[in-house]
Design goal:
Blueprint: H1 4-14, H2 20-31, H3 35-46, E1 51-53, H4 61-86, H5 89-102, E2 127-133, E3 139-143, E4 148-149, E5 153-155, E6 159-162, E7 166-167, E8 174-179, E9 183-188, E10 194-197, E11 201-206, E12 209-210, E13 215-227, E14 239-243, E15 246-259, E16 265-279, E17 282-286, E18 290-295, E19 301-305, H6 308-312, E20 318-325, H7 326-337, E21 340-343, E22 352-358, H8 363-372, E23 379-382, E24 385-388
Parallel strand pairs: 2-9, 6-9, 7-12, 13-14, 21-24
Antiparallel strand pairs: 1-22, 2-3, 2-8, 4-5, 5-6, 8-11, 9-10, 10-13, 11-13, 13-15, 14-15, 15-16, 16-17, 16-18, 18-19, 20-22, 23-24
Helix pairs in contact: 1-2, 2-4
Amino acid sequence: MISKNTENLIVKYINKAANAEELDQLRDWVKKPNNYKIFKEFVRTHYSILYTLENQDKLDVKEVLLQRISKDKSVIKQKRIRSIMKYAAAAIFVLGLSYYYQQGYLSNIPTQTISEDTVPVIIEPGTNKAVLTLEDGSNITLGKGKNYQSENINSNGEKLAYSSETGTKKSIVYNYLTIPRGGQFYLKLSDDTEVWLNSATQLKYPVHFVTGETREVELVYGEAYFVVSPSSNHNGSRFNLICNEQEVEVIGTQFNVKAYKEERNIYTTLVEGKIDFNANDTKRRLTPNEQLNLNLDTKELTVKKVDVYNEISWKEGVFSFEGKPLKDIVTILSRWYDVEFVFENKAAQEKRFNGSLRKDVNINEVLNIVKNFGIIKKYEIKNKIVLLK
């Protein structure tokens, strides 16, 4: 549990509003066993930022946080001394507010410099939208305010669900659900399996499954999170996911697969249950919190333990990053905001970010967070090109 006082200290720290004494209290609290983990989870749950790291592999994350708190305290003390020496009491307030604004310390205030004749370009976040391709090849655009209903399909424009019916092999037909850049969508298959589809994703699936036969769907490309209806509810019928060169055999479980066209690795992350992974005549069984990486060039399979939250938070409306370089982060952001990033400052590509970003904010807020932490000096948006400087 976290006390209200400690919660207030963290809130002030995140908003750059803590004084020197409060920073001392927070630093002492973080030093105690398990408190860093509580701090991390609290910020991850309630805020869009944590802090940045440039040498994730070389530095202890907790120590970096303690160093940062101490540095903030030092900045506050230096500012206080300079202000007392140079300004009267009324002027000190104005200077202090100006300093916090210029440094991005008030993180909810945009820090772009806008001239009088310049209108800032605002790029809004993605939305629930998709294109449903029926068995006859016709396309149905799904999105907010666009309801669609047929004999066995129902959509309110933001979710898509199929009626729970079965058929024969002769009658089986397939639909495609394609999620564009800047989109996401929820799908419920006819066997009650739930699927969350990320931006730039396409899934192929049968309108209904055949009783007693393996339930099989295909992730053509992109990223999807599955909550599979267990075999026990379907007369023992297995659930298989085909994705490029791999096959995932599922036994009532939750898992995430990321297989974007422009990337040469397929990542399969198990959250709950069991899955058997088959690729290149090799079979591996994953246990919860394990991620399997298939390199499409070398055909190599590697398995490692991961923080599952970082892999699946996208479906909960959050991007969570653990020591990821900025070049990888902007790849993810480019799909959600449907923009392209260009690095004028090449060194910024390798700078690492450790924290969380909400998906429901416009890209300017995200870029200001990156800017406020000193990862980039400034940015420009022209059409759908974001130039990082």
